[in-house]
Amino acid sequence: MIQKLISKIQKTGAPIVVGLDPMMNYIPEHIQKKAFGEYGETLEGAAEAIWQYNKEIVDAVYDLIPAVKPQVAMYEQFGIEGMKAFKKTVDYCKSKDLVVIGDVKRGDIGSTSAAYAVGHLGHVTVGSKKYAPFDEDFATVNPYLGSDGIKPFLEVCKEEKKGLFILVKTSNPSSGEFQDRLIDGRPLYELVGEQVARWGEECMGEKYSYIGAVVGATYPEMGKTLRKIMPKSFILVPGYGAQGGKGADLVHFFNEDGLGAIVNSSRGIIAAYKQEKYAKYGEEHFAEASRAAVEDMVADIAGALKQAK
Question: What CATH number corresponds to the domain at position 168?
């Protein structure tokens, strides 16, 4: 799947991923009103509003981007109905030939980790048949439990030719409470990065590994160090836009071939119509605002990379 991701990045010229992280206060009133009119102010109504919102955004931007990243918590909060919307979103994005990164941040051990891996990336056996329950292409995972938590995912990735993005240095302000702690004189995130590179050697594509890392855009200098530590790992970079990251911060996350990183923006794109810059589109044309935000993001990153050469 890493080869497909690379191919689509090269085709679109857009090393970006749109985070489909819907909140009810992002969803325009006319979509909520229609969904509640059909299902009432219920969990089912909320899930329907989320699904319709996602669908319009995907329809507006799918030709510009290589990938999407639905954050499962935004769907789980609405229970079973929300998870149905998550699955519909995954399936619809795949029907548009988008790479789907399931932002699930799982982290457990043994049979529990194996079950998470099967549920999101693999096939589960039911009698004489096998099914792909959620069927994302990549998943985000937390390495805090060590190799016991990662190896079951690696096995599924090898079997299914799918991938992982392992948390290494996250974009949130308090990430340093643990991730920056010195171990034998080195920050913990560097040691985790080295282990990600080792895990990645077990799942190599043509040039890049199926096993990538999550490194926040808000820490560009750390990103520069981690790029050297993990030369064959793709880096998923959150923190662009709404969290303060900009194109100029991102150049160190890429390799000299212009590849090696994919930058995420969530509310900066899906709720673009709420920003002053895109307010002219209004709620009714929220998806057009999202498309404009994608185009601006692509230009910002491309300009920064060109200037850095």
Answer: 3.20.20.70
